[in-house]
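sry for the spam today, last one i promise. struct tokens for design, 218 residues
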């Protein structure tokens, strides 16, 4: 399954795009700010990035300019600006004006991300995951958790919570007994019974300490 990251600061527009793409069979991740999107892209490299140019004072094209590796992208905006269109295309992105019809967007996605490929489907990671040695208990905020695997970019962990919604904030503090606490950005989660599995990216300021911790745990 192909993974698409949607970066749009208008919540209704973002949620509408996520629903449309999920119904079309794509795995989706949404971000409302440039900072949030950067943390997501630190954790995974999606098959496609859909980004609005104007993001609450930031320029969405920064995500394409700062990417370590080229990411197929569709840039959307409500402003018909030839300069912006040229900049987007210089990054290899497709430029589309709002309002974008669902049919036109899905057609553009198929042009940028073919349905089949010699490459395995799903997001690739900037850093390989490492299974942890044994069952490592931790705290995510005040909630008991279990670390599943780690990488220099982040961590996958499990928490036990009942209900249909995960009661964790967007930013959490992970504490491993005997080690320093690290601030993490929760990028994704999925539920199986009362167990929630989450993927989180490490905040840049903690990366040196986090990399040392990864070497200790794995």
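last one done:
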């Amino acid at each position: 399954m192909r993974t698409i990251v949607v970066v749009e600061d208008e919540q209704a527009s973002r949620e509408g795009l996520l629903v449309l793409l999920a119904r079309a069979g794509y795995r989706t991740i949404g971000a409302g700010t440039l900072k949030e999107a950067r943390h997501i892209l630190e954790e995974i490299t999606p098959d496609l990035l859909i980004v609005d140019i104007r993001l609450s004072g930031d320029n969405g094209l920064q995500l394409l300019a700062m990417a370590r590796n080229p990411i197929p992208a569709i840039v959307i905006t409500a402003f018909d600006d030839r300069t912006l269109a040229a900049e987007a295309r210089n990054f290899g992105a497709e430029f589309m004006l709002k309002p974008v019809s669902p049919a036109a967007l899905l057609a553009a996605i198929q042009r940028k991300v073919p349905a089949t490929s010699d490459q395995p489907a799903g997001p690739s990671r900037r850093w390989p995951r490492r299974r942890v040695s044994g069952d490592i208990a931790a705290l995510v905020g005040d909630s008991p958790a279990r670390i599943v695997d780690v990488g220099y970019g982040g961590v996958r962990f499990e928490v036990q919570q009942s209900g249909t919604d995960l009661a964790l904030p967007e930013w959490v503090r992970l504490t491993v007994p005997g080690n320093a606490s690290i601030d993490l950005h929760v990028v994704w989660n999925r539920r199986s019974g009362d167990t929630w599995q989450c993927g989180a990216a490490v905040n840049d300021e903690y990366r040196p300490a986090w990399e040392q911790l990864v070497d200790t745990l794995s």
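The first helix runs from residue 11 to 23. ok im logging off now
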